[in-house]
Amino acid sequence: MDENLKKIIPFAKKYKSNVIGNITFNILYALFGTLGMVFIMPVLSVLFDERKKDVIELPEYTGFIDAVGNWQDYIAYYVKQFSTEYGVQYGLMFTVGIVLITFLLKNLSNYLALQHLTKVKNGVLRDLREKMFAKIVSLPVSYYSEKRKGDVMARMLGDVNEVQNSFFMILELIVKEPLTIVFSLIAMVSISWKLTVFVFIFIPISGLVISKIGKSLKGKSTKAQQENGYLISITEETLTGLKVVKSYNAENFFSKTFNDSINRLYKLTNSIAKKNNLASPLSEFMGILVIGVLLVYGGNLVLVEGSLKGSDFIAYIGLAYNILTPAKAISKASYQVKNGLAAAERVFEVLEVENSITDTENAKKLTSFNQSIELKNITFAYNDEAVLKNFSLTIPKGKTVALVGQSGSGKSTIANLLTRFYEVNQGEILIDNHNIKEVTMKSLRSLTGLVTQDSIMFNGTIKDNIRLGKLDASDDEIIEALKVANAYEFVKDLPSGIETNIGDSGNKLSGGQKQRLSIARAVLKNPPIMILDEATSALDTESEKFVQVALENMMQNRTSVVIAHRLSTIQKADVIVVMQKGEIVEQGNHDELIAKDGMYARLVSMQSFE
């Protein structure tokens, strides 16, 4: 059994009753489908008046197996009796009625089987998406620094859909269609074993030809799905950076990249479709070829040898054609299952990624912050080159500590490590003497508030964006947080106030307004530790004044780690730590460091806190 098929089974187990329902009704579908063709025989027998002179006796019942073997005699007896007693027209109506009821039951069984299958497919789709999204959200930030977001989105949406659409064809493959073939063959053998020998030769040859064509399908499906992920990535990146694309007149470059991708996808999907489209006509032609042979040989048995009745032969041809539809369905479904297997492989690739940052088994829950944050001998590298080297720092409760230095000195890395977006390679980070690796991430992050340089907003109302950290916040609490963040003065003038929709990524607002809203979000969460990662570096001077006031309001009575870009942000800090290449070169307050006339003083004179 394919590994990915084994992985899907636990998802389907939840819908066991629907799987059993589908299998049960598929068995009934196959049975009634065969019986419908079998019951055409007495109709033809009445029409052609073939057994008018025969004296037909009811076979003696000697057991179920024998009774099934004598099914033709039983049908012939009752049809003869009915026709003799009530007339030929009534005999015909009786036999036609049996055929109609049988085909009604066949199609009702098909409907109920599909209903059960739909519940399984949609249920597994929902559960897979739920698990996939939970996994995507739980994976560390470092995972997405290596992966394309578009590819992850393609797996979440397109590949999971492909699993739903293609994978559960397997239920049809193992029950419905094979049983239709088996029941039809049993009926055919009972009519004429000589004719059935031809059919037994046809089935394996047909299967061999079809499997040869579909051999490379899974590999091509995987390539097509990967290309689809790349396509979504290009679209997502182009839309996110549309201002840059337009300002650099790079539309042609991005259009070419996109067009190259869709052309590759075009060739791959055409190649896949060519094989998919060949499955059905090929199996049908091979089936008709066999029926042609049957007509020649069977016609000889009827016309020359006289060993087969004409009505039986017509019913036999109907049964032989009855095999063609499931044979076509099996060949088509086997191709689609290959697509589903390729998609499932990509889905489980994400689901099985090992999360490198998780809670330990006995992780403690931090409920408060009372003493200090300590970074002890921290060494950290994103790839091979260390960004922080043997870095140590103590941040007492209630103090504001600023980190300054040139780009690449490791300032923002400290913010990433404090929030456990990344894990330290060596050393430890302690909060109140608790190693943050040994506390739950939820409780750690509930103690911290983060305001980044890129004020991340979501498409929704101001209210929804601000209450992320406190979902049950009242409107009054939200307005109070906006006032602290120096944002209420512009929010109150908006048409719908806090209910105003701010658009995708908050694009209806200016940079300064978005930044003040992100500060309000942190204020409402009200954490004891605040981390400000270059919170004013992207703002103009006027916006910076508003935001600076908001930051000072927010930092009152809180422990703050300020990663600084501009002098104005850190002048009032209790301790300023000057960093270079992942190490501390100076520390002290503003006046002390100016007096030292070292690196900090040079940075101040240059007004360049990068």
Automatic annotation (TrEMBL):
Record domain ABC transporter: where: 373-606
Main localisation: membrane
Classification via SUPFAM superfamilies: ABC transporter transmembrane region (SSF90123), P-loop containing nucleoside triphosphate hydrolases (SSF52540)
Keywords: ATP-binding, Membrane, Nucleotide-binding, Transmembrane, Transmembrane helix
Domain of life the protein comes from: Bacteria
GO molecular function, one term: ATP binding
Subcellular location: Cell membrane
SMART domains, per the entry: AAA
PROSITE patterns: ABC_TM1F, ABC_TRANSPORTER_1, ABC_TRANSPORTER_2
InterPro entries given in the database record: AAA+_ATPase, ABC1_TM_dom, ABC1_TM_sf, ABC_transporter-like_ATP-bd, ABC_transporter-like_CS, P-loop_NTPase, Type_1_exporter
Residues covered by the ABC transmembrane type-1 domain: 23-339
Membrane-topology descriptor: Multi-pass membrane protein
Membrane spanning stretches: 27-48, 87-105, 181-210, 285-304
Designated name of the protein: ABC transporter ATP-binding protein
Organism: Flavobacterium macrobrachii
